[in-house]
Structures
1.
Amino acid sequence: MASEAIELVCREVVELVTEYLAGTLSPVDRARFDEHLAGCAPCTAYLAQIRTTLEVAAELGAASPPPDEQVAERLGELFRRWHDERNG
């Protein structure tokens, strides 16, 4: 393995997740990130949680604020969908 392709650890994945989702990682770092995800279920779950959070934030930012009950219901739906996808 080349020195610039040293394996990532979970802490580094957490630190790089924003750049990963924005598509701003270098090709080498993107490959390292993807390689780590392929073998790390907790980091894969973390990435899914961040994506879901960003989706919810985008939806909330695009509309007038819904009542708290609707927010709780939508977050519950998203969590159930994420949980079902994760557990197959």
2.
Amino acid sequence: MLSELARLFLKLGTLGFGGPAAHVALMEDEVVRRRGWMSRERFLDLLGATNLIPGPNSTEMAIHVGHERAGWRGLLVAGTCFILPAFLIVLACAWAYTQYGTLPAAEALLRGVKPVIIAIVLQALWSLGRTAARTRVLAAVGLLSLAAAAVGVDELVVIFGAGALLAILAWGRSRRGRASGILAVPAALASTAAGTVPFGLTPLFLVFLKIGSVLFGSGYVLLAFLRADLVVRRGWLTEGQLLDAVAVGQVTPGPVFTTATFVGYVLGGFRGAVVATVGIFLPAFVFVALSGPLVPRIRRSPVAGAFLDGVNVGSIALMALVAAQLARAAVVDPWTAGIAVASAVLLLRFHASPAWLVPAGGLLGLVLPR
């Protein structure tokens, strides 16, 4: 049973291009249709549970399936085997990047990939934003979160502040009271000033452990956390290096969170890659193991549901801000602007696959004049 789980998730981790939605579709085909390990209803219940906890949804889904199939050992085997292929592929890309990333050919390749990444993030913003901001109240909280993030409020305060605000409003409605007060996040909780902090493996592990423990929503929200922690606060990465890391995460199969592997290798070699990867994925294993019995209660609670709505809309606001910030580093001339616009049209109008657009952008970067 464990060997079957290992083979399945090693395969899915190797072939899983296209992001979390594609990963989940592949899992449903293998687990429900082909193998009959669980009913479609149970599969959907587990999928819903992944949206109630932080972390990478498709990885957590793999962990859930493993736990359902073979208990604790299955949980570890399925999750590890799903992550491992992407880890190894991204590790190889990171090595090549550190060796050849400054060569003209590599720079040209990434020049074409980066604007495609911006378009992919915009597509995710469009689809996720319509769902997250489905009411006027949610839209207003999203705009408030965007404004707070723009003036430097810490990203965790933005996310949990939005959740707490909506939870309070829901609690007030449930008590048939009137919610009042100023909808604001305390300035005292604003983010720390930008600066350069000495690099170390322990701080690196703690940064990614924090991100894996609190990040709700799409994997693209990861960009906001990485930029805030590694570019702005610590000065370990440049904007360009962050975009390169995201590009590698997009062009390789498996979870987007293996961007951490790339960042860790660039900063600290092989040990840095291992430390960053373990840090960002470890909370997913813990949360899946602990959340199962709590999920039915959370779903039945209007206040808890409202908190999660707020977390989602706050995450989208962070995602929008970081997309605008990164676009300045990606769209640097008419050619890259054209790639970004064309990619956005292909994604939004014709539903093109990112798995094809990213390498196509790289090829364009190689042939277009500089």
3.
Amino acid sequence: MGAAYVYLNMRVLLTLFLLTAAVGLGNQAGDVKQRVKAARALGKAGSGGVEQLKPYLQDGSAEVRRAAVSSLAEIGGQAALDPLTAALGDGDGEVQMTATSGLVNFYLPGYYQSGWRSRLKRGTDSLLDRFREDNEQIGRAHV
């Protein structure tokens, strides 16, 4: 009975440990989503959000850093130049490309909205158009 009691306790402890770890991982994923939302909200706050976005550039999650750099690029202006320049050294390629677009946007206003993201969206839309069904209400060209 002693060995069975120890075995049962070990199973209970292992189950509790795994449940605690799963809850902890779930909280981290939710925490990342909250930080991404916060970074995007700061982008809508205007130039006052630049200083508050700087800590997000050092975040461990690439998603959070992408959202922060995207917000900085949308804000633009002189205050965003230093954080965008620092983001060029990030290990994530998308963070680097967005920071580059944000810097170019400072010198060529409107580039961020019409740069590589716009071309990617147009390419994706044209690809999806090939798979969409035809509208039956519109007459054919030969009619």
4.
Amino acid sequence: MIVLSAKIAHSGVTATEPFLARCTDNSELPRALAKKQFLVLHDNSPAPPGFLGYLSFGQDARGPVGSQLVSAPVTVSHLSEGDVIRINPAKSEIRVLYRRGSNQNYLLVTERCNNYCVMCSQPPKPANDDYIMDELFELIPLVDPNTVELGITGGEPTLLGERLFSFLRHIRCYLPRTAVHMLSNGRRFQESAFASAFAKAIPKDFMVGIPIYGDEANLHDFVVQAHGAFDETVLGILNLKRFGVRVEIRVVLQKGVVERLPEIAEFIRRNLLFVDRVALMGLETIGFARANIDQIWADPIDYGDQLKKAVVKLDSARIRTSIYNHQLCVLPKELWRFSVKSISDWKNEYLDACRVCTRLGDCGGVFSSSPFRLSRGIKPFLEPIHSFVDNRVVPVGVAEPLLSDGCLSGVPAGRGS
């Protein structure tokens, strides 16, 4: 698990409001570039003057006299060249907004939502949070233009309206080669004019992930706690595809939903055959999911047959299908090739019992946020790493391709799913 926020000690920080800064390891940057960046100090070498600030770890802040000095705990010492941080002097806090070396950077654009999902991992907040987008507009020019992929999540991004379109164009301008995956409940795309404007604003390599929780309205509307949401979501998907937007359907697996999983798969292959991908996702048991755990929890080893039937239906229809957020040991072996290591590295852990597992490198692990409700089927494999089929060595747990070949592989379940 990678820590993305921490308390700091600071000296000489002149700002009173939160501010963003790009990190660098290069102490020899030209002055014009140095004055816009924080120099990361990983050793006791002398720090040259001229940088916006100086960041050290596990020790008192140090640097040229009169400069902005920040001392952070070693938990965030992974910060390096090209990463972007947010420093809040008033709260003595540092937060990592972007990591150049990661393909798991996600941008929360709002905490507002028009669904109230029973398993929402990040419950919505109704307060105006336009300041989040203000910060993100500032962030994008600091992001490495060679970034492979970014995720957009919420809340419900479409509630931002025209400002979402502006933000997508902003990304397209500064990061023309970056693939973008956005989570949405899909409801607002029922408006043809909105869907059309959205399609014109998106970056070239783009996909939107939208949830379907039933093969009919009652189950889906119950899960999202919004009457009429099913019809709006399906119409939204139809509109997006009409305007050429790639769509991934996401199904978070929980009690009630898993009971109808083969029927949901049948609904998709009969009515939404043209979608670009289906992701069947394990539950992250935080937020509303934790509060409603007894009503929604389903152990993966108990719904293995339902999952297998659903995957067979989707795969036979040539719909690209993946299983997210599951450990290999709780899945039927026939489904291993569909399993993706999808849990983000900043909230991914492995149990102590799993350290001896020969398939550890292929397994997605568990959510560090959800240690209190795990499958009773989790156990280490002790046999060799490869399976032998027809005298051929066949690796298991093959990682997903990048979005340019289908979909962002590591986007979290989030509220939009």
